[in-house]
Amino acid sequence: MMLCRFLFRNFRSYKDEAILDMQAAGISEFSDSLLGGFRDKRTFLPVAVIYGPNGGGKSNVLKALSALASIVQAPLSLLDRKSGTAPNPYQNAPFSFDELSRKDASYFEVFFRVHESEYRYAISIGENGIESESLYKKAIGGRKIALIFDRNGNSAEYGAGLKLFANLPLNPEMPLLSFLAIATNIDPVKEAAGWFKGLISVSYNLEESDRFFQESGERTKRIVLSILNAMDIAITDYAYDDEKKRVILKRTVNGKEYNIPFANESEGTKKLIGFLPQVITALNEGRIVLIDELDAKLHPKLIKNIILLFKNPQINKKRAQLIFTSHDLATMRNDVFRRDEIWFAEKNQQGASMLYSLYDIYDEKNRHIESSAEFGAQYLEGRYGADPYLKKIKEWEN
């Protein structure tokens, strides 16, 4: 699964259209880290980081993509549980600072790839439920675009294999994609719904981590230990204590092994181990990971190592992608990121967030920011916008 481009508008702090584009720009840096191997020769970014001030809209980009995924996933997850009735997974959250937007629908659109196909899925949701929804598909490298379905209000047009649903009443609270994934076994529907199910939104759920460490086999254990040791966290082994229901980490000091309860580790180590299973799952299965505030409680060296896992083609063989927010300027460097992998979120005078990449910024001579630039230093000087804190503090002190 591969995210190509995500577009949304009228969601939380975003009034106007915002686009997170994972298609690689035509620049040379880190070209060996790009995700490719497709028939059309297009390449995509393995990582994207969003910087900006508190309240600028960084987290809302991830929340928008997570909201879209939950809209599709909720009915499917309910089917897995085989009980209850389908809830409305989406709480209407339009832009709040003008009357027209508050009454208008939120819109989400995503282009993604599964195997040899590229899909475009779009949905518009207002106060009274789903107003429009569509799914289209084309073969990668092909030109013909196939209609899967196109829903408008209470009616829908269907593509091949779905004509029998033409007179079906539509539920305004259930996505048609979700319903068709439950009711049919048609490949495009299964692939599209499965893509949303494959998104991983990191929650730092320690119970899930306990289950991961309890169930992981020897191969997974080797991967975990090699990653931790590469990050200078000297853990030689781990085990799950069934009696005390907790993870025990093993450290070797002066040739002697010690058992250390997970609870005694630093907050940074606990956080890292808390989401590392989800990162490993993404790398093993080629999935997309969303992490809000990756830098919180983590040393910049750990953050860099996590990023480089996704940028290493020998490790990231399944085309996994990492999308995260951060305040950490120590990793805003040209030896960590390409220019098109760095994004900024900030609010305008009307209180609406804007999203743009470093590659979208031009200098005083109308040229792209140089790949050799000191990204973090220039950001603090105010050249990139997004309200750099230290510049404001210095101006206030003067």
Compact summary:
The chain has about 400 residues and is an alpha+beta fold. The chain contains ten helices and 16 strands.
**Global Rg:** 23 Å
H and E string: EEEHHEEEEEHHEHHEEEHEHEEEHH
Uncertain residue ranges: 82-88, 390-398
Q: CATH homologous superfamily of the largest domain?
A: P-loop containing nucleotide triphosphate hydrolases
| Helix residue percentage | 25-40%
Major β-sheet profile: 7 strands, antiparallel
- Based on CA inertia axes, which overall geometry fits? globular
Count of DSSP-assigned helices: 10
**Total number of β-strand segments?**
16
**Average pLDDT value?**
88
CATH fold title of the largest domain: Rossmann fold
Q: Could you tell me how far the N terminus lies from the C terminus, measured between alpha carbons in angstroms?
A: 51 Å
CATH class wording of the largest domain:
Alpha Beta
Strand arrangement in the largest pleated sheet: 2-1-4-5-6-7-8
Overall CATH architecture of the largest domain: 3-Layer(aba) Sandwich
How much of the polypeptide forms β-strand, as a percent range?
15-25%
Tell me the domain tally: 2
What is the SS-derived class? alpha+beta
